[in-house]
Amino acid sequence: MIVEKIINKWILFFLFLIPVLGFIFEEPYYITLTTKVVILGIAGIGLNLALGYCGLISFGHAAFFGLGGYVTGILSFHALNSELMFSWPFVTSGSSDMLIIWPIVILSSAFLALIIGFLSLRTTGVYFIMITLAFAQMLYFFAISWPNYGGEDGLSIYMRNSLPMINTMDPLTFYFICLCWLLIVIFISAKLINSSFGMAFQAIKQNEERVKSVGIETFKVKLLVFVISGTITGLAGSLYTDLNRFISPSVLNWQMSGEIMVFVILGGIARLYGPLVGAAFFIVLEQTLGSYTENWQFWLGLILILEILYVRTGILSLFEKKLKYEK
Amino acid sequence: MKNKILNIKNLSKSYGAFKVTDEITIDLHFDEIHALIGPNGAGKSTLIKQIVGSVKNDIGSIILDQEDITDLTDVERAKIGISRTFQVSSIIPQFSAIDNIVLSLLDKSSKTFQLFKSIRSNKDLYSNAKKILKEIELFEKSDISASDLSHGDRRKLEVGLALAMDPKVFLFDEPMAGLDESGTNMMINLFKKIKSNSPILLIEHDMDAVFALADRVSVINYGKIVATGTVDEIKKNELVRDVYLGYEI
Fold first, then answer.
1. What integer is the mean pLDDT of A270-286?
2. Rounded to an integer, what distance in angstroms lies between the CA atom of residue B1 and that of residue B118?
3. N or C end of chain A: which has fewer CB within 10 A?
């Protein structure tokens, strides 16, 4: 436990260090890369709550990531074009203010997670995986067939959304906005995991029948975890759209769900910082191996196989073992 | 009817043509331990599952404390006062012994949905859990992971989980299986103590324990209750000797 805390502090140290070095040495590319790690890490932490701590193997978290992204993109698109979003039942215009966009993203992601969770949590195992996947794929095909917002080509928003008195176009500033969200998400997740509610959902993962037998309504517990998990992932989708100033249906595809799951598994299931490390590892692989071959994911697959066969508890546990050994 | 806390009428369950429980009528009085005995596969554990709601009844009704609970879910039944142990130990393996007990206390104390307050700061929950651990003689092992406990200690822990719920009735499914003599004696003394607060429907193969504990005994065979009576009546019953006890008692 103490070793894990030391590692977590080192992770946070590097998250501060790398973008600052990128700024000092005028390499904004590294700032953008670290921003991507942070955003995808947030998405992974969201999924980890459901998958790692509660045992809900969702293969549809791209739905929340994509919804967060599209809500951000659509609001911004209407604000930039000065077009109304709706004129009935009340007049609604877009917004490029992050302080307006974030609450809308949070509420819409939570609502979507509530609907998907309410229907899919009546099943377990492979059926749960398939239902969550089906919901995400439905949204994916809906986005492809919606020409108003770019259809298959996606939607560009040209200008990053704004915050009062802050230049969000500056890569380092935007990075620290994302880092603030990461710290908030880690704080909330840590609080949840250590609460009585956290005790209940971690027990459900291990033995749901026993949890039911002590009078705990496991459906409600799982639904709330799923909603919180989906909301966090939706928020990550919003930041991702702002990072790229572009959103396309690809973020709703099952591959995105798979990638978020890979972050969790690579870093370490049911480890608070695991998905962040997993996302970092994934992006480093993408950037290094990707420069040699288009098929870099072959090597990712190989690493995943080796990890699942020989480590299982994720990259973080390797560091832990090394630190313990050195002590 | 007034002295009955649990009243089960004509409870049946079939899987295809195989009748696991066949119109079982059985009751549990206040202050009593009612033992349910019978050969393996007779339907005892299925009956427990029907009472707790994890297996649906084909027909029959279950009245708990004058309330019909037949259509309630398993969680609702647990909430209104049915507490059980499982035939095969069912605990939360990666939790410590004390955290297992605390989990069992959550619903009663309405703290399941406390989202942000640290569970460790709930001093009252942990002090109640410690009292229960002392009662089941596991206090010294409070912080040991449940998966590292011995088989006997897991059985004790399961009884502790049931105790923590402070239910109206206990349904214990072979709680003494695998316990050594001191563990069995501890359970016997504990059950004698708790039955005045919450009567016990007990499934048990250890006949010495059953005869030491039970106020009444029912014998089940091929899904049917074949006899009910006091320990002495059951011991003398020819049919019971024939189907289960044998003649060497």
1. 93
2. 45
3. N
**Cross-strand partners of B4:** B29
Residue of A317 and B65 predicted with greater confidence: B65
Q: Confirm if A208 and A218 have CB atoms less than 8 A apart.
A: yes
> The domain B1-81+168-249 is classified under which CATH number: 3.40.190.10, 3.40.50.300, 1.10.1040.10, 3.40.50.720?
3.40.50.300
- Show me where the domains of chain B are located: 1-81+168-249, 92-166
Residues of chain A that touch chain B, judged by Cβ-Cβ distance less than 8 Å? 191-192, 194-200, 202-203, 206-207, 209-218, 220-221, 224
Q: Which two tokens stand for residue B115?
A: 């989202």
Q: What is the pLDDT of residues A30-73, one digit of tens each?
A: 999 999 999 999 999 999 999 999 999 999 999 999 999 999 99
Which chain B residues are Cβ-neighbours of A210 within 8 angstroms? 86, 90-92, 161
**Distance (Å, whole) CA B188 – CA A242:** 67
- Residue in B closest to A208 by C-alpha: B92
Query: Which of A285, A71, A36 lies closest to A182 in space, CA to CA?
Result: A36
pLDDT of B236 reads 84
Interchain CB contact of B133 with A (< 8 Å): no
Contact A42, A116 (CB under 8 A): no
DSSP string, A279-320: HHHHHHHHHHHTTT-TTTHHHHHHHHHHHHHHT-S-HHHHHH
**A54 to chain B nearest CA, in Å?**
13
Chain B CB contacts of A54 under 8 Å are: none
* CA atoms within 13 Å, Cβ hemisphere of A102: 12
Residue A205: closest CA among chain B residues belongs to which residue?
B92
CA separation for the pair B211, B230 (Å, rounded): 9
pLDDT in tens, B14-60: 988 888 898 999 999 998 999 999 888 888 889 999 999 999 989 99
Q: Which one has a higher pLDDT value, B201 or A314?
A: B201
pLDDT at site B249: 44
- Which helix (DSSP H) or strand (DSSP E) does residue B123 occupy? helix B123-135
